[in-house]
Design goal:
The structure is a homodimer.
Chain A: H1 10-32, H2 40-47, H3 51-58, H4 61-75, H5 80-83, H6 90-107, H7 109-121, E1 125-128, H8 129-150, H9 160-170, H10 173-182, H11 187-202
Chain A binds a DNA duplex through residues 2, 4-11, 14-15, 18, 37, 39-41, 49-53, 55-57, 60-61.
Chain lengths: 204, 204
DNA sequence: TATTCACTAGACAGTGTGTCTCGCGAAGAG
DNA sequence: CTCTTCGCGAGACACACTGTCTAGTGAATA
């Protein structure tokens, strides 16, 4: 029972590859038929992988969706907005951040919709991915609110806390999707509306 | 094989009663554990009814939730707002309508949340109930938008169509729940915020 | 008294989940 | 070149839920 040292190269790479293939399969499956329930078997078949492999890698159905959420957060560039780097104008930065997020929402609309809805029905079913996204956005909006206040760009009678609540609610995926899917508006129209809403509600 | 005439009194009443008991059971079940999947067997047991009876009466799982949605629309008094009767002031009527809907949203929050989320994941799974509710509200908001325009209460540069889109998005259950559950705000605070949002975004 | 009808009880096939065991075959170590 | 390790496939198992169908039972009604 001697313990050998194992440094993985090709093997780990291959493993990473199958993991990626599975995530791609869920994503694709959700895009193709967002309204139909997803079975692990389907996903496995699409990824060219055994069903047990999915459980082996992700642990459970929930783990799979959790991983998908994280993958989306990283790959979709949900912090592209922050990447833009804070300028000097709080107001412009806020608007830029909203305008940056809208195309991302639109690109991954079907998948995000499913993830968010699943999280509403049963938070455990998607691991903590959605919650983590919400918390990150919450922190971001609190920061924007604070910054608006410092630059006296906040509407009178609006506290920083209120502004944070409002920014969070009005600039999120849910609001986007209400306008985009619920009212069938084009992406840029939605972006304009969302910026306008936020400006009128919280800005001086 | 003679066909007798049957005028139901007690029998029809009893049938109506079981139907009601089943709907009450789903409602209760959803309130108790909104995040756990609902099985027909559970519901049947809670209603003191056989599983097959549920299928007999509602046809399918979807039919059951569809009926629940309709029941809620009637019982919850989603048109209480309209019942108030249109006054002379479009603006006040709009705000009153929003203030009237918020407590209803809050009262049935868990059940509405589940219904809306299910409808997002699979519209067929809830019959057309949620869609019907959305359409009714859509018509109502279009009416409010029109009325605001007629009384010159619309913000400059906001078209009637835009106003309708915005009213629909900003005064719906989704927005309510973002603030109420997503940010853990008390009901009256949410009502205040929603009125404020709408006022600032669409009103002159 | 005869009939109709709401409802029960339970079997049945189908589909999904999650776990576990066995085994192959290729990457890696010596 | 041999032996180990480990990623992965194949498939069985128990369990839960859905939807359909059949054969009743008992109370309301004619």
């Amino acid at each position: 029972m001697s313990t050998r040292k194992y440094e993985q190269r090709l093997r780990a790479d291959a493993a990473e590859e199958t993991r990626r293939r599975i995530l791609a399969a869920v994503y694709q499956r959700l895009c193709q038929a967002p309204t139909e329930p997803v079975s692990i078997e389907q996903v496995a078949k699409m990824a060219g992988v055994s069903r047990s492999t999915v459980y082996l890698i992700f642990g459970s159905r929930a783990g799979l969706f959790d991983a998908l959420g994280d993958d989306l957060r990283g790959r979709g560039g949900f912090n592209r907005a922050a990447d833009a780097g804070p300028g000097t104008d709080a107001r412009k930065d806020l608007f830029a951040s909203i305008r940056a997020s809208v195309p991302i929402f639109a690109e991954h609309r079907e998948v995000l919709r499913v993830l968010y809805s699943m999280a509403q029905l049963d938070p455990d079913a998607v691991g903590g991915a959605v919650q983590r996204m919400a918390e990150a956005r919450s922190a971001g909006m609190a920061w924007h609110a604070q910054r608006l206040a410092e630059q006296n760009e906040l509407r009178p009678n609006v506290t920083v806390d209120e502004a944070a609540h409002l920014l969070w609610s009005l600039s999120g995926f849910e609001t986007f999707d209400q306008l985009y899917t619920g009212r069938a508006l084009p992406v840029d129209a939605v972006a304009d509306l969302m910026v306008t809403i936020v400006e009128r509600v919280v800005c001086a």
